[in-house]
Amino acid sequence: MVSSFRKYLFSTLGLLVLAFSVWFFIPANPLPATTEKWKGVNWEGSRRPLRGGEFLALQATGANAISQTPFGWQRDKNDPEIGWDLDNDKRWWGESPLGIQVTMDSSAKYGMKNMLKPHLWVRGAWVGEIEMLSEEDWKRWFANYTAFIVGYAGLAESLGIPALCVGTELEKTSHREEDWRAVIAEVRKVYSGKLTYAANFTEYQQVKFWDALDYIGIQAYFPLSSGHSPGLAELKASWQSHLPKIEKLVRKCQKPVFFTEIGYCNTVDAAMEPWVWPNEREGVEFSDEVQARCYEAFFETAWKKKWLAGVFFWKWHPEVPERQPDFTPQGKAAERVMTRFFSSN
Predict the structure, then answer these.
(1) Which pLDDT does position 11 carry in this prediction?
(2) Residue-averaged pLDDT of the chain
(3) Burial of 255 (0-12, 13-18, 19+ CB in 10 A)
(4) Contact 32, 303 (CB under 8 A)
(5) CA–CA–CA angle 86, 153, 274 (5° rounding)
(6) Which residues contact 208 (CB under 8 A, 6 or more apart)?
(7) Cα separation, 301 vs 307, whole angstroms
(8) Looking at residue 87, what is its pLDDT?
(9) Strand partners, 72
(10) What is the DSSP secondary structure assignment for residue 96, as one 8-state letter?
(11) I need a labelling partner for 272 at 20 to 30 A (CA). Which of 40, 83, 91, 106 fits?
């Protein structure tokens, strides 16, 4: 009896050891590698027609891509109605179909690819707060949103724009997986280019429809510091805490990543809450050095990842704005950092 038990025990242990060995030595899914690098900025659609030469300074940085961001409008975060009209002549010129086409053609002359990235603007709220209060309103909102994004998908197809972002930071809608899959399917019917969705940095891990898209898109406004004027070592260490979480998703989905937006104000608190608008930083000390340091930390960490297919810095203006503070790197130390890395590979 004892002998039989021992045989059973050793047999069971042997199977367990074998199973563990197989599990331990079989590698996890490899991280996908991409040879493309979209070196981009989020281009501001101008109020007036381009006069020529607006892309010279951007070309000098080594950038090879821009994203264009026309807007649709929502009166309230709980309102299912969306206002948009491709033929509306009251919008800024750069957000009109003609402006989008001229901007694309002008940037192409300087070797730049385009992504069309329509946004929603909500009165008195952040777009990530859009949430319907009834199932009927959800159906109405998705019907309206589908019409909105399919309209721009058709424009992108007609202009030959190679990439389209189907939504931006719609954090309280993205849990409705089947609705979003239906939106993407309708877009695919009219658009043959590459697709992404721009998930907020607090949202990207919860999105369930990455498999229906070509890129994982992340609005990469990750907090990098808890205080003012952090050093480069602290900023790089913060990136190293965020990257494994992204890589876990990349490994699972086997999709490359776009940082559909990333940016920092030229203020001492830029790394604390990078997403905060300039007009909400009243009284904060300006610092071109901190902004540049944040750029440097990104390039020395995340930019080196082979799964990162591209980045778009918020924001580049056709004409350098005079307001301070601002997200743009134009004419600042951050532009020199961007130029150094964009031009080196």
Answers:
(1) 52
(2) 92
(3) buried
(4) no
(5) 90
(6) 175, 177
(7) 12
(8) 82
(9) 120
(10) S
(11) 40
CA distance 10 to 123: 69
Structure tokens at 220: 């990469």
pLDDT at 5: 40
Percent of the chain with pLDDT over 90: 86
Q: Which helix (H) or strand (E) holds 140?
A: helix 135-159
Whether the Cβ atoms of residue 312 and residue 67 lie closer than 8 Å to each other: yes
Give the amino acid at 109: K
Encoded tokens for 74: 């929502």
For residue 309 the two structure tokens come to 């297919």
- Scan for tokens 């039989």, then name that residue: 4
Amino acid at position 325, single letter: P
In sequence order, the 6+-apart residues with CB closer than 8 A to the CB of 325 are 265, 266, 267, 278, 281, 284, 286
Instruction: Tell me how far the alpha carbon of residue 143 is from its chain's centroid.
Output: 24
Q: What are the beta bridge partners of residue 165?
A: 196
Closest CA to 283 of 264, 269, 271, 273: 269
The string of pLDDT tens digits covering residues 45-66 is 999 999 999 999 999 999 999 9
Residue whose token pair is 């070309």: 59
Omega before residue 315 within 30° of 0, cis: yes
Query: pLDDT by residue (tens digit) across 174-192?
Result: 999 999 999 999 999 999 9
**Cα–Cα distance for residue pair 234/105, rounded to 1 Å:** 41
Q: Which residues of the chain have pLDDT under 70?
A: 1-27, 345
